[in-house]
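PT: before anyone asks, these are the final sequences, not the draft ones from last week. 639 residues across everything. Please model them as a single complex and drop the result in this thread when it's through.
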Amino acid sequence: MLTFRLAVRNLFRNTRRTILTMMMIGFSVSALILVDAITQGMLRSLTDTFTKTLTGEAQVLRAGYSESFDVDLYISNVSDVEALLSRDAAIAATSPRVVTGGMIASSYNVISGMTHGIDPLKETDVSRLDEALVAGEFLRGSPLEILIGTGMQEILEVDLGDRIVVTTAAADTGELTQALFRVSGIFQFGIRGMDDSFAFINIADAQSMLSMNDAAHQIIVQFRDPDTANLPLQLATDLSDWEQTEIYSWMTLNREIASMLEMSSIGTVILGSILFLLVSFGVVNSMFMSVYERIYEIGVIKAVGTRPFEIIRLILTEAFVLGFASCLFGGLLASLVGFATADSGIPLGQYEVSGVALNEAILPVLTPSQFVTYPIYTTLLTMLAAVYPAVYASRIAPSEALRKSL
Amino acid sequence: MPQVIQTQNLSRRFGEGDTLVRAVENVSLTIDSGEFTALIGPSGSGKSTLLHLIGGLDIPHEGSVKLSGVDIASISGAALSDFRRDHIGFIFQSYNLIPVLTAEENIEYVMLLQNVAAGERKTRVSEMLELVGLSGLGHRRPPELSGGQQQRVAVARAMASQPDIILADEPTANLDSKTGATLLDVMRELNQSLGVTFVFSTHDQMIMDRAKRLVHLRDGEIELDELRESVAT
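LR: through. Structure below.
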């Protein structure tokens, strides 16, 4: 107890130096917490944008479909699979899609594109297609409706109500099939690839064109907790009996984005290491200054019988108090910044990651673990940085210390 | 009287070659329990070095120091710290006390190292403060005490651990003559009433006047060992 009292009082013998050191450590802790919070926020925004745009949090696919997009690799009995999925407590919603490549033509132009047959009612639960509409109306389930992107609208030189012909090959037979649609809505995701070449029609029209009856190529899955989509995917549903059908997390389907998530963790570790290194130099310097200033006093307390270990304990306790108090300050600072930006977010302008446009302000994700983990690491590091000055102080020969100071 | 200190052919040198200084050279000295002895001599005569060697603060190049029958050279590290804690009380010239602790806490410090029970510590702190005439000032920190009061706290701290011997290195050097005399009277009183052994390193005439034995040092060697019949009171 006296050691603790002594440590606290020793720290405030040079208040200015202690406060400066505390600010250095505290700012580093708050920087670590905030950088992690912003990174998490950015990744959440990226993930959210990515999964809600079209991919979904997971997809039920036939084995091999994700590599080949072969129209023949479809799930035959969508209703049964969806019924099975709906029994899984982790799954909030599902929506089937028929996906086919083909030619999309207007009276003025023709392009190749991807046509998605969707269930309008279910689709709104798994994607933001309805929110991306910039003109016209979302699909209502009526025949001949088609949604196209702003890029495709420009290329085909069409407007709402204009006619479009979609030509594709039927599943299994490969025979060419055509259907006429009228533009009912225009969407804009801000992703050029999608805005230029994607079109959405009602699933019944797509199934009819491809002669697929109640079949679909994808069943998009939305979880109650988005983190469920993180790997490894652990679900109660087993689809192995259904024509080699499996559930693939969006992270499996998009390794590029998943790798980015992993890289961001490494980035935080690198940043943390640099900050920790800078802090440790500061702490070593501060503690050495403190030891040098007290060299005579250390000589005296060693002379009266303080063991070397007890000197080390005293200096490390000082470092602990310094680190702990600094972390409280840093944590408080991070909380204040976090709360100040909780609603409005931090505007980083528009940027694109893997073809996904992000223009929303980043909402920092502050979690209790950040306020526990980083302060613990920092306090431990502060103590680690103090080991050298502590050992130095413990090894000072009393007679040497007394002679040096006189 | 049993012997508390025995040094045998004690030598300590600093530097080497042209800068070699023989701080203590071939010193053999015995001090009995209850003595009030002063190591005296001019600056550089080796008083403080000899005191540090006796107190186990420094290691001799040659010779041995036995304190209460224990050869100090045979112990080191934590054991030496424990030995000093339990057998020797130190009073230094200045900055003796830990400035962030109160007078009471400074006196209590060594007893905490000794793991003395809380009740016993409290009793001894009160007794020591009374003994050195500082009752009522125990809550003050060193900067709030005068130089003389600080040295008295140092005496109380040295006494609190109930050592075999108290080594005082120029204890009155930073005190005015009146305060110094008062402090010496306190120590003399403790010596006479409790039989505590005091060994001083000094060139202060007031201490020389009060010491029963004067060990004169010159160039690290004992020049004269003088036992006096009568001393100033």
